[in-house]
Amino acid sequence: DDGRISSAARPQLISLAAGATAIGIGPGLGQSPGLAAMVAWLFGNVSQPIVCDADALNAVARRPGLLGQQAGPRILTPHPGEFRRLVPGDKHTPREELEGEARALAEQTGVVVVLKGHRTLITDGRQSAHNTTGNPGMATGGTGDVLTGMITALVCQGLSPFDAARLGVYLHGLSGDLAAAELGQVSMIASDLIRFLPQAFRQHAAHEQPPRSDRD
């Protein structure tokens, strides 16, 4: 309805989800009461791993009691503004304190939190890592959508939610670094990351550059 998935599509979505190894929700989804209810239902009832970004995070934020009640593994990929909607507080909170809140949220609710930004934090509350790949040219529309797809794909390949998030963030940033080296940062767009993904995977597999993410 009006360019968005209708709440009447729930039976079809449930059927499709049943055959999925993992699910990514959020990019391009849009917002409506029906969509928010549908995301909440999937979050609370589907046993497969779900990666939530963008409007899926907004839907989860509208139902504070949902976190901790999920039916399976969940990976949340908020930028600081989206995180503040999940955990209300001062929007000017220093990064270090925000990361402490992200660790606490992960520990209390059993989700993996990917707090995006400079040195993106990946945490499940018990273990954490900071990523050091990536560059400012990646701060453009659509790059987060690419990350959602990458993490979902890595979960589909059998990685644990934490490991899929950590490797996904690393390769996402490495793709951005490779794109910046050839194209420059100023005009980089999201599809450039996809273009350089094969090279990033090859470089990682060949250990030409050790993974640059620091465990805490």
How would you describe this structure in keywords?
216 residues, 11% strand, alpha/beta, 8 helices, globular
Number of helices: 8
The neighbouring-strand order within the major sheet is 1-2-3-4-5-6-7
Question: What is the first-to-last residue Cα distance?
Answer: 46 Å
Beta-strand fraction estimate: 5-15%
Radius of gyration: 17 Å
Classify the secondary structure makeup into a structural class: alpha/beta
| H-E order | HEHEHEHHEEEHHHE
Give the overall shape. globular
Unreliable segments of 5+ consecutive residues: none
Question: Biggest sheet, open or closed, and with what strands and sense?
Answer: 7 strands, mixed
| Mean of all residue-level pLDDT scores | 94
| Helical percentage | 40-55%
Number of strands: 7
Compact summary:
By secondary structure, this protein is of the alpha/beta class.
Layout of secondary structure:
Blueprint: H1 10-18, E1 23-25, H2 33-45, E2 50-52, H3 54-61, E3 74-76, H4 80-86, H5 95-109, E4 112-115, E5 121-123, E6 128-131, H6 143-156, H7 161-183, H8 190-205, E7 213-215
Parallel strand pairs: 1-2, 2-3, 3-4
Antiparallel strand pairs: 4-5, 5-6, 6-7
Helix pairs in contact: 2-3, 3-4, 6-7, 6-8, 7-8
Plain-language structure description:
There is one protein chain. The chain is an alpha/beta fold and 216 residues long. Helices cover 49% and strands 11% of the residues. It is built from 8 helices and 7 strands; from the N terminus they run H-E-H-E-H-E-H-H-E-E-E-H-H-H-E. It has helices at 10-18, 33-45, 54-61, 80-86, 95-109, 143-156, 161-183, 190-205, and strands at 23-25, 50-52, 74-76, 112-115, 121-123, 128-131, 213-215. Strand 2 (50-52), helix 3 and strand 3 (74-76) form a beta-alpha-beta unit. Helix 2 crosses helix 3 (54-61) and helix 3 runs parallel beside helix 4 (80-86). It is globular. 42% of the residues are buried.
